[in-house]
Design brief:
The complex is a heterodimer of chains A (543) and B (38).
Chain A: H1 27-31, H2 36-64, H3 75-110, H4 118-137, H5 156-159, H6 163-191, H7 204-235, H8 249-266, H9 269-283, H10 290-303, H11 319-331, H12 333-347, H13 356-379, H14 381-387, H15 391-421, H16 427-453, H17 468-497
Helix pairs in contact in A: 2-3, 2-4, 2-17, 3-4, 3-6, 3-15, 4-6, 6-7, 7-8, 7-9, 7-10, 9-12, 9-13, 9-15, 10-12, 13-15, 13-16, 15-16, 16-17
Chain B: H1 5-37
Classes of the chains: A mainly alpha (543), B mainly alpha (38).
């Protein structure tokens, strides 16, 4: 068993073995966990479980859409499936997974012993469990799960059964968890870096998470406010969003998307950080344009606050408003382009090899860029008015969130898992996972562009015969994609957790840089107990 | 190694500042919406 699951098996290096006897064991180790590595592991396992739950809901959607007509679910349940799929994937899978990466890697990368607030870190994680149970359990409440879409638009939310209250409460709890996690990350990065690790020498993963954490602190309270107003509209006689009482449901959309668009970047910026670590390691070159990467990340974060209404072109806003949000949205392509070109420039004339993390990273650039381009197309008001709420939008955001966030996370897993588990994964299995996922992902979502362009609306359980072929193809792809993720867990993750595989060297990737490669594999339970002395580049420990 | 008292205080100060930042965002936002609706 690897040291990840068994601290007794830890290696030496920077570990302080005298701490070992104090480790809690068994369930206490996890329930009372304050170690950033343990909490990171729990976050990652939790988010994978939620990925599976959200994935099953997605397969329910795709099974129903395999053929025209109603086969498996009624339209009401179909809407519950789409709503819960979105909520679970966004709040239960992607966000916690990146927090898991942050917990594992940020202290290791900046030479800190742990996160700044270790007990709050424990609370941040354990709050997720009741929230997730409440969210998933809402399926079994009277009237079924919420069916208002993951955006929880009013006045639909005002017409739902008690499960909406459960979902709102769950999101409050998850939001509190996110804010606590963000505070922890910011304080850790700003206050706990090893001497010599200046901000502009910090790995880009830490930079992207620092900026993401600020975004979270700025927008999660807005979501909390909006859903609290929904709650008071439902139960306490207010009419913020209820048109029947003089409220304004369009205002809800403005508020939601003021949260929702930065949220999109919250889900992608940490992936940018992961890719920025991997590509230089496998191109055997320093990252091209480090400083511009930092500024581009900050620019994307700032611009994300002024583009929210591009989700709302069809609500009847003035043309000047449409123009503003259209140009502001297109402006985001500039810093995003800086990042894409920097990654390509890093690869240019590099001695590239294509181990699994690099395959995921190159795959990420390829498919994420496609999602970026369709985003540009959707940013244009005249086109978006045609494509609003069609499958083109569904294709776009899955190219960004699955091929962006999820592929970035898989890249990060294959890159850092040897450090976490102490064993190398099977390259063959990793490559099967990559190629299977890439092919099935495109089979699933590429046809959705055509469906959207032909006018198929999202969130409908049925469709005319003209859309049958592409839907059948998308459903086959979805089941294949789901199968590949089960394969990943059984063939890659489980063996690693059991310590099966070649022992991982301290630095499995010859050109990888960073303090995480200065500790043994698996990373000992305690690392950097005393602040390390760093070289001039802050990538090596010299004493 | 445990954090020094100075580090602990510095972390706490920054943490409380960030938490109050989140609280201010929430309060200003809710106040703005209620004011705009009245």
């Amino acid at each position: 068993m690897s040291a990840v699951l068994d601290p007794q098996g830890q290696a030496g290096g920077h570990a302080d073995d005298h701490h070992d006897h104090a480790h809690p064991h068994g369930w206490r180790r996890w329930l009372y966990a304050t170690n950033h590595k343990d909490i990171g592991t729990m976050y990652l396992l939790f988010s994978f479980a939620m990925l599976m739950v959200g994935g099953v809901l997605a397969l329910g959607i795709r099974a129903e859409l395999f053929q025209p007509g109603l086969q498996f679910v009624n339209p009401g349940l179909f809407n519950q499936l789409t709503t819960m799929h979105g909520l679970i994937m966004v709040f239960g899978a992607i966000m916690p997974a990146f927090v898991g990466f942050a917990n594992w890697m940020i202290p290791l990368q900046i030479g800190a012993a742990d996160m700044a607030f270790a007990r709050m870190n424990n609370l941040s994680f354990w709050l997720l469990i009741p929230a997730a149970l409440m969210l998933v359990g809402s399926f079994f409440m009277p009237g079924g799960a919420p069916a208002a879409g993951w955006t929880l638009y009013a006045p639909l939310t005002l017409q739902m059964g008690p499960s909406m209250d459960a979902a709102i409460f769950a999101m409050h709890i998850m939001g509190a968890s996110s804010i606590m996690g963000s505070i922890n990350i910011i304080v850790t990065v700003l206050n706990m870096r090893a001497p010599g690790m200046t901000l502009m020498k910090m790995p880009l993963f830490c930079w992207t998470w620092l900026i993401t954490a600020y975004l979270l602190i700025a927008v999660m309270p807005v979501l909390a406010g909006a859903i609290t107003m929904t709650l008071t509209d439902r139960h306490f006689g207010t009419n913020f969003f209820n048109p029947a009482g003089g409220g304004d449901p369009i205002m809800y959309q403005h508020i939601f998307w003021f949260f929702g668009h930065p949220e999109v970047y919250i889900m992608i910026l940490p992936a940018f950080g992961i890719i920025s670590a991997i590509i230089p390691a496998f191109a055997r070159k320093r990252l091209f344009g480090y400083t511009s990467m930092v500024y581009a990340t900050a620019s994307i974060a700032i611009l994300s606050f002024i583009v929210w209404a591009h989700h709302m072109y069809t609500t009847g806003m003035p043309v000047t408003g449409q123009l503003f949000f259209m140009y502001a949205t297109m402006l985001i392509a500039v810093p995003t382009g800086v990042k894409i070109f920097n990654w390509i420039a890093t690869m240019w004339r590099g001695s590239m090899t294509f181990e699994t993390p690099m395959l995921w990273s190159v795959g990420f650039i390829f498919v994420f860029t496609m999602g970026g381009f369709t985003g540009l197309i959707l940013a244009m008001a005249p086109i978006d008015i045609q494509l609003q709420d069609t499958y083109y939008v569904v294709a776009h955001f899955h190219y960004v969130l699955v091929a962006g966030s999820l592929f970035g996370m898989f890249a990060g897993y294959y890159y850092w898992a040897p450090k976490w588990t102490g064993v190398m994964y099977s390259e063959f299995r990793g490559k099967v996972h990559f190629w299977g996922s890439l092919i099935f992902f495109n089979i699933t979502f590429f046809p959705m562009h055509f469906l959207g362009l032909a006018g198929m609306p999202r969130r409908y359980a049925d469709y005319p015969m003209q859309f049958a072929d592409f839907n059948m193809l998308a459903s086959i792809g979805a089941f294949g994609f789901g199968f590949m993720q089960v394969y990943f867990f059984l063939a890659v993750v489980v063996p690693a957790m059991r310590g099966k595989g070649e022992p991982a060297p301290q630095k499995p990737w010859e050109a990888a840089e960073g303090l995480e490669w200065e500790v043994p594999s698996p990373a000992p339970w305690h690392t950097f107990e005393t602040p390390p002395k760093l070289d001039a580049t802050a990538t090596r420990v010299i004493g | 190694m445990a954090l020094t008292e100075q580090q602990r205080k510095s972390n706490l100060r920054l943490g409380l500042f960030l938490a109050s930042l989140a609280a201010v965002v929430l309060i200003v936002f809710v106040a703005k919406i209620i004011y705009a609706g009245s």
